[in-house]
């Protein structure tokens, strides 16, 4: 019999007061066990105070794609900025990167500034650090990201390779194309992170269960599928009796942002204003999900507990 440890990470903590409220409610209900802070979010300071008040395990959600940099020197005349003076955006960042327009020393400068600001806001270094919109697994960026984690002694990250993703026929094609790209980048990142001594949970889940695609059964199936796939790789990686399998479930609960409040310097995006955030919150706190974890011997924890 193996035991599973599940980290349910609420991403985008600090994005707006309503996001913070929803994530805290999920934590207090035992539905989220860990959070990832956007230090350039408009409510980051409030989020750090809430984490301290409620003893919420908190890591860093490194952001190079939405809003404004936190490094003063990069707020003007930086390759990380578009003509409008903000980060290039989820797809804009990828385009600029593929064209060789991004200065990697500026990427490193901004990542370090975000770690320093996290330390300033929370009083400690992040036990884990991942990337907003999965920028941390992109070519070139992955190397710089790994160097920063190693320099600061940050042990854990996220590698978004979700078992069974290709069988999820409910995901719309344009989104699936993006997810497949994220998966490919992640597969190419494994060796880089390993070389730098960085660790991540055995299993990642969260692409197939985002927003409107989240349901109790979708989460249950995604986790069960992933565990079966992981434990079936016995010849290559023997799983001894009582082995603990670690899983991260990425979630985005909260109450919808009400513009102009929220965002990372340029107001809240469409996903943040949509009903999908509230849908995630309402799904995650359902008692049948909690009881499913218990019957499957799945224990909720944070990166600090690994």
From TrEMBL:
InterPro entries: Glyco_hydro/deAcase_b/a-brl, YdjC-like. One of its GO terms (molecular function) is hydrolase activity. This is Carbohydrate deacetylase. It comes from the Eukaryota. The gene is YDJC. Belongs to the YdjC deacetylase family. Its cofactor is Mg(2+). Keywords: Carbohydrate metabolism, Hydrolase, Magnesium, Metal-binding. GO terms for biological process: carbohydrate metabolic process. It comes from Meleagris gallopavo. Probably catalyzes the deacetylation of acetylated carbohydrates an important step in the degradation of oligosaccharides. The lineage of its organism: Eukaryota, Metazoa, Chordata, Craniata, Vertebrata. The keyword tRNA-binding does not apply.
């Amino acid at each position: 019999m193996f035991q599973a440890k599940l980290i349910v990470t609420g991403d985008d903590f600090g994005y707006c007061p309503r996001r913070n409220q929803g994530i805290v409610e999920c934590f207090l209900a035992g539905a989220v066990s860990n959070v990832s802070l956007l230090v350039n979010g408009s409510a980051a300071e409030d989020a750090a105070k809430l984490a301290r008040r409620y003893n919420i395990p908190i890591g860093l959600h490194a952001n190079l794609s939405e809003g404004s940099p936190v490094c003063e020197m990069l707020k003007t005349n930086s390759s990380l900025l578009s003509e409008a003076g903000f980060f290039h955006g989820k797809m804009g960042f990828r385009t600029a990167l593929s064209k060789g327009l991004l200065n990697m020393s500026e990427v490193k400068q901004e990542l370090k500034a975000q770690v320093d600001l996290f330390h300033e806001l929370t009083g400690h270094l992040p036990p884990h650090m991942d990337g907003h919109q999965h920028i941390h697994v992109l070519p070139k960026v992955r190397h710089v990201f790994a160097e920063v984690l190693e320099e600061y002694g940050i042990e854990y990250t996220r590698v978004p390779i979700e078992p069974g993703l290709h069988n999820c026929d409910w995901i719309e094609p344009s989104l699936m194309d993006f997810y497949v790209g994220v998966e490919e980048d992640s597969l190419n990142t494994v060796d880089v992170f390993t070389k730098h001594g960085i660790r991540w949970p055995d299993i990642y889940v969260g692409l197939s269960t985002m927003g409107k695609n989240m349901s109790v059964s979708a989460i249950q199936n995604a986790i069960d599928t992933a565990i079966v796939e992981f434990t079936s790789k016995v010849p290559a990686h023997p799983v001894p009796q009582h082995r603990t399998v670690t899983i991260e479930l990425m979630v985005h609960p909260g109450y919808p942002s009400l513009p102009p409040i929220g965002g990372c310097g340029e107001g809240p995006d469409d996903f943040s204003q949509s009903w999908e955030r509230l849908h995630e919150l309402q799904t995650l706190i359902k008692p049948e999900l909690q009881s499913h974890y218990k019957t499957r011997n799945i224990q909720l924890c944070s990166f600090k507990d690994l």
